[in-house]
Amino acid sequence: MCLAVPARVVELLDNDMAVIAFDTLRKRISLAFVEDVAIGDFVLVHVGYALHKVSVEEAERTLKMMAQAGVLQKELEAISA
Amino acid sequence: MKYVDEYRDQELARTVAAAIAAEVDHGRSYHFMEFCGGHTHAIFRYGVQDLMPENVHFVHGPGCPVCVLPVSRLDDAVELAERHGVILCTYGDMMRVPDTKQRNLIRAKADGADVRMVYSTLDALRIARENPDRQVVFFAIGFETTTPPTAAALKAAEAEGLKNFSVFCNHVLTPPAISHILQSPEVRDLGIVKIDGFLGPSHVSSVIGSRPYEFFAEEFQKPIVIAGFEPLDVMQSVLMLIRQVNEGRHEVENEYIRVVTEEGNFKAQALVSEVFELRKSFAWRGLGIIPKSALRVRDAYADFDAEKRFELSVKASREAKSCECPSILRGVKKPTDCKLFATVCTPQNPIGSCMVSPEGACAAYWTYGRFREQQPSKLEPAE
Ligand code: SF4
């Protein structure tokens, strides 16, 4: 539950909401805690809320590590549920 | 999956391992407590312990919110669902935790209670909107990372005038728990648990920043290094801790600067303090009562506080006998010291919370530790 997954913002919505994408999975999340997010930015997503922005390199490193540790798939399943 | 390919930083891991080996003082031992379940997992999954010199030890701390929630609070949640007939929404991690009667929320659901697993408080809000005739309670647990989303949901419910949504708040705070451990007789007087420094939590710190830890570093003269979750982060942080110990320093250092700042996330902090206030004290499973260590909903938001909206028959907690979670959470014992470990107690049939939560120390031992002998670590130490 303490994990956070980096994801790319693909659409900005009203009320501080956005759509993020991991490969083919898309999900609505809240941007209530981050400033100045643009389409294409990576954000660290924890239980449906972006906690902060991260760089592309950081996002890729983290995703790789999570895949390697076998926790990425689980998180993605939780997110898509 | 696009991101599953060879982990490329093996070389770097060797370099860090070599630096650690070169810098440890063989005349002393180093005991570092990792507070966060995420670190426990990184340490096991990548065999980080195997890359350490023999005198560097990890002490597993209480950093799993599921593990530290007293059973009585879970009993209350079950009561909300069963006696008060609410729609109880909670994160998946809570679903399999055994209550006092060795039942869990999955079982309560099978028996007819309306329990729904959600990924986010956003889902709980949606369920409340879709069920205006039912009371919807979000069973909130977690450390500082998970608290802002609960605060945001409360604000949203208020703004929308949602009359059927409330929060059963069980959010707890990291710094008081660290302080409690450092002041415990096991650490201070008896020396049963030796702690020379802390791997500070990463995502928690992204919200509260690194500053709240400065007090401990000063007061208890222990170094703290905020560490990321990657195995390399953990190793680099251990190196930074070793240097501090060797040089007799006790500072807060931040290994995870790519995410954590000194101040943390202002927006999240502001929202949390608008909606929540400190409880005088809170009982932690395994650690006992810790003053000012948890949050409750402020009176201004009392309408959205499940503890005020529903009458709960508060009972004292009774934990499963022989389960060693209380000692494990304080670093006094290891999961393998528990008679029930891997015999009666397994992730399929968890007796205590340290086994039920994937972030718990017992679950980490089960998943990785037991097979360490047979399987070489992913990151091979340098020759
Ligand atoms: S192995 Fe099971 S019973 Fe023993 S301490 Fe861990 S969770 Fe408790």
Summarize the structure.
The complex is a heterodimer of chains A (81) and B (383). Chain A has 81 residues and is an alpha+beta fold. A five-stranded parallel beta sheet of chain B has the order 2-1-7-8-9, with helices on both faces.
Notes on the protein architecture:
The complex is a heterodimer of chains A (81) and B (383). By secondary structure, chain A is an alpha+beta fold. Helices cover 27% and strands 38% of the residues of chain A. Chain A has helices at 56-68, 72-80, and strands at 5-12, 17-22, 25-30, 42-46, 49-54. Chain A is globular and about 35 Å long. The model of chain A has no long low-confidence stretch (mean pLDDT 86). Chain B has 383 residues and is an alpha/beta fold. Helix content of chain B is 37%, strand content 16%. Chain B has 17 helices and 13 strands. Chain B has helices at 10-23, 37-45, 65-68, 71-82, 105-110, 121-130, 147-160, 174-183, 185-188, 203-208, 214-219, 231-246, 266-275, 306-309, 325-329, 353-356, 361-367; strands at 30-36, 56-63, 87-90, 115-117, 136-142, 165-171, 197-200, 224-226, 252-254, 276-278, 281-284, 288-291, 295-297. In chain B, helix 5 (105-110) links the parallel strand 3 (87-90) and strand 4 (115-117). In chain B, helix 1 runs parallel beside helix 12, helix 6 packs parallel to helix 7 (147-160) and helix 7 (147-160) crosses helix 13. The radius of gyration of chain B is 21 Å and the shape is globular. The two termini of chain B are 33 Å apart. At the A-B interface, strand 3, strand 5, helix 1 and helix 2 of A face helix 2, helix 6, helix 7, helix 10 and helix 13 of B. The site of iron/sulfur cluster has 14 residues of chain B, from helix 15 and helix 16.
